[in-house]
Structures are given as structure tokens and as C-alpha cells.
Write a structure and sequence with these properties.
This protein is an alpha/beta fold. It is built from ten helices and 13 strands. Helix 3 packs across helix 4 and helix 3 crosses helix 6. The mean pLDDT is 95.
Amino acid sequence: MSETPWQKNLINIEPYVAGEQPEFDDIIKLNANENPYPPSPEVRKVLDHFSYGDLKKYPSIDASPLREAIAEYYGVKKENVFTGNGSDDVLATAFRAFFNSDLPIVYPDVTYSFYPVWCELLKIPSKTYAVDEDFRINVKDYYEPNGGVVIPNPNAPTSIGEGRDFIVDLLEHNRDCIVIIDEAYADFGKYSAVELIDKYDNLVVTQTFSKSRSMAGMRVACAFASPYLISYMDAVKDSYNSYPMDSIAIRTGIASINDKEYFEQTVNKVIATRERVSKALKEFNFKVLESSTNFLFATHPEHDATEIFEYLKTRKIFIRYFNKPRIEQYLRITIGTDEEMDAFLSAIENFLS
């Protein structure tokens, strides 16, 4: 069939592809980096007592109550905080606001696969630098002039996190552009760059409530930066969606951020399980990268990754496989409950035997 004139005006883009979302019960879902534990009990209280009649009103236009709660928790000012409908919304807003140079923005070749999608969608020139053979980012690659830097720390899907010295080195050599540090998994690692926003006025740090705070279904995220940069993100937000966060998300987000004790308990449980499973996989002769996240990135020298992936599906265990160069023999394994991970390890043992 010949192409009509209006078909020529349709967007031609390869979208981001998420992990499988099986629509049947009795599975072990370890493919989306979701937290295996429920949100804070304080979140449940908000939902139990939420008046549906309040939905007739618009929510706070800038989610001001949530910004205040996040600012207090992190010891910054409200003007340092931006909130949005999940980290993808926050990051997309930042891309629109800050990456408008003729020079390409730069990021690792093995990283979060939404970055190239946004670049194509928003017509942002981009360039990647290869991580080394151990999947580590070489900070010296980012010394060259560019139109902006975006790096996840810890990186995904590799699970590797870098410390303060790496981030400072990156910032010192990129004074002339915006540097975004995507900290979706920072709560499971060792370092957050939020402490640096007062020192570096070109730094933007993004975080999410989806992973460590068990609120992937509510879509709550934030960014930290100077008030000057936050004002640009607000301007972009108000240019296409003045009310990105709904009333329930704002109130449950506040309840979650205020329950520090529960947050620390669940994060520590995930970390403890992560270390136990990592050790067990190594005993099965897997190579497992050192993880600073709520998942493991692993490969087996004697078995094809797709065979392991497909076998686990027959046991109703879903992990993540990426059919991409350099990582096609690696598997990403979300950390579930101890019971779920025991079932996973049992299935791995059966496969290997």
C-alpha cells in the first residue's frame, strides 16, 4: 500500500521497551526492579482515610506540600526541589529544560535505555562513551566539551555505583554544561550527590519513590538542584502539564518520606538479601557484578543467558534479559523477598544440574 501524505508526518521512533508484565497469578516477578515489600503503613493510612470527594478539586499546582516534606528530609530548601510523575517524567522535563545545545549530550553506552529515546524524540544530539570491560564508567571520557552529561549512579542495568570522588571529578571537568546524576537506585548504594547541589550550580540530581520506597504504582519522583535550575524545570512543566501530580500521589508521597524508620528497615532487608543471593550465585560459578542497587547483574561462563532466562519462565520466575551488544550474556535479577529468592536459587540449581 502506498504511503499517504499524512503518514509521512507521523513520528518514526523506537520506543523504550519495559520488562514483561505477565498477566497471571502465581509468578515470581523479578524483572522490573520493584520493591518486594509494601509501602510504609503510613501510606495505607492516607489511602484508608482519603475522601474521594477531594478528587473534584485540582491538586496543588506545584505539589508544594510534597516538596516541603522532601526538602526537610534531605536538609535542603523547598526551592531546591522539583517533583514529578515518576522519574521518567522528571528526567524528560530536565532533558527539555537543559539540553538545548548544538553539542551532543553524553552518557554511557550501557545504561538506562530511555536516554536515547528522549534524545530522538526531542531532537537532542547525543554521543555515548563505552564502559570498560568490567562495565565501569571512565570519568576521563567525559572531560571533552559536550552539551550536557547524564549518568545514572548507580548505573543500570550494570548495578555498579560510584562514590563522591567520581562525581566531583565529573563535575569539575564539566563546568560549562548541565550534569544530571540519575539516582533511581542510590538508596541501595553508598553515595548520593544531593549534598553537592549548593557547591555546583550546574548539577541536577534525580530520585524516585518507585524502588526504595515501594511506590512504583503511584509514580512519585523528584529532582534536586539550585533554585535557578528548578525554576527552569517548573517553566517546562507549566508549558505542557501544570498539574503532573495528583492529590493521592502528593499525600502518599508525604507519608512515605516521613516514615524514615520503615524506609530504612526495608532498604536494609533488600540489601541483606542481595548480598546473600550474590554469594549463592557465585558459588554456582556465576560472575556477579558488585551491586549498589536492588538487583544483580550476572552471567554464567558455561550457559547461555537466554537458556537460563527461558528455563526460569517455565518455573514462573521472570527476570530481565537484554538482547543488546556487550550485555547479551548477562541477566538482571531483581531482589525479591527471601522466599522468592530461595525459589529462584532452587530453580537455578535445578537448571545447572
